[in-house]
Amino acid sequence: MKDTIEEVKTTLGDDVYNNPVSVFVYDSGEDAPFTACQGIPGDMIKLAGGLSIFNDIDKGWATPSWEEVVARDPDVILILDYNNDTEAKKAFLETNEFTKNLRAVKEGKIYSACCSDMQGSAGSANAVKLMAKEFYPEKFK
Q1: Which residue has the higher pLDDT, 23 or 118?
Q2: pLDDT value of position 101
Q3: Contact criterion met (CB below 8 Å) for 1 and 125
Q4: Could you please report the per-residue DSSP string of 10-54?
Q5: Which of 35, 53, 133, 141 holds its CA 20 to 30 A away from the CA of 59?
Q6: 78: three-class secondary structure by DSSP
Q7: 111 backbone dihedrals φ, ψ, rounded to 5°
Q8: Dist CA 45 CA 108 (whole Å)
Q9: Pairing relation of β-strands 21-26 and 50-52?
Q10: For the whole model, what pTM was predicted?
Q11: Cα separations (Å) of 92 from 17, 27, 96, 97, 136?
Q12: Residue 108 region, left (φ>0) first, then alpha (ψ -120 to 50), else beta?
């Protein structure tokens, strides 16, 4: 796992870590989004060259408003996939009155990650690498 993380860090380089992409993690919720802020998911996103748009909230998970998501207009959206529900969540984000005009939605930068891998598991290092490839595909050619 350490080797995988070191490979990601080397591939991405310092510039990426100094200027990370902003990431909105969409776990669930339609009235308000349940999202990752800090903790293991936030740390994994940082290792992949991103920063949660709610990194300023001092807890692992939160339920901010859709208006707060819009105000922070993320570069990318990361959907947490529980049981092959990514497409339904993506369709919701593409049609929701608040999120359909987000830059990440308009540019098609909606990705997914296995929810259990984002909680800390044997698959976490690979999840970091997959996120890094999604966030910075040009670095992995």
Answers
A1: 23
A2: 97
A3: yes
A4: HHH-HHHHHSPEEEEEE-B-SSS-BEE-SHHHHHHHHHTTEEETT
A5: 133
A6: strand
A7: -120, 175
A8: 19
A9: parallel
A10: 0.94
A11: 31, 12, 6, 9, 25
A12: left
